[in-house]
Amino acid sequence: MSNQDQAAPKWRWSLLIAALPAAVFAAIAAAFLWGLFNNEDSLPSTMIGRDIPEFDLPPIEGRENGLSTSDLRGEVSLVNVWASWCVPCRVEMPLLVELSQTGSVSIHGINLKDKPAAARRFLAELGDPYDRIGADSSGRASIDWGVYGVPETFVIDSKGRIAYKHVGPFNRHSLENDILPVVRRLQQEQGA
């Protein structure tokens, strides 16, 4: 075997080893791009169809009513988990305020790990759409609800079961095409 014949396999292995990091990078980049452009906004929740967790949260300072499990039975309602430090919560707040002004559904809030003064300033600045707000200063109730992060919005049926969960801030499209159709269907079922 000549020196030239022995050099060919070494050259091929060197090329393969050099190309391997580029191939791995391309595969990772493709996965990230798929995730970036995948338009599926909903995350699966094991809570859908289950009773809401047992909880009893005190009100945020300056509010009269906290929020508990018993407050969420008897009518279809929304529960919005929010915080003053949450930038996306600011994005959806005008729509929550607008929805609350229609009176079409009760809206309740769980204020997650917030300073009372900051929560009050947030509501004073952006509006207060909530019938009741529970202060979840430890984050325990939010964990029991299966909250990934704020904001998250739940549709609760009149029997106190979670019917729908929206993760992240909602916009007008997701409010009108995802959340409100569930609310209306449940309200019709309740009235039947």
Automatic annotation (TrEMBL):
Tell me where in this chain the Thioredoxin domain is found: 46-188
- Record's GO cellular component terms: outer membrane-bounded periplasmic space
| Principal localisation | other
The record's subcellular location field reads:
Cell envelope
Report keywords, A-Z: Cytochrome c-type biogenesis, Disulfide bond, Membrane, Redox-active center, Transmembrane, Transmembrane helix
Q: Where are the transmembrane segments?
A: 12-37
User: Record's superkingdom?
Assistant: Bacteria
> Can you name one GO molecular function term for this protein?
disulfide oxidoreductase activity
Q: Keyword Disulfide bond, does the record have it?
A: yes
Could you confirm whether the keyword Transmembrane helix appears in this record?
yes
Could you state one GO biological process linked to this protein? Answer: cytochrome complex assembly
Task: Give the family this protein belongs to, as stated in its UniProt record.
Answer: Belongs to the thioredoxin family. DsbE subfamily.
- Under which name does UniProt file this protein? Cytochrome c biogenesis protein CcmG, thiol:disulfide interchange protein DsbE
The source organism is Sulfitobacter delicatus
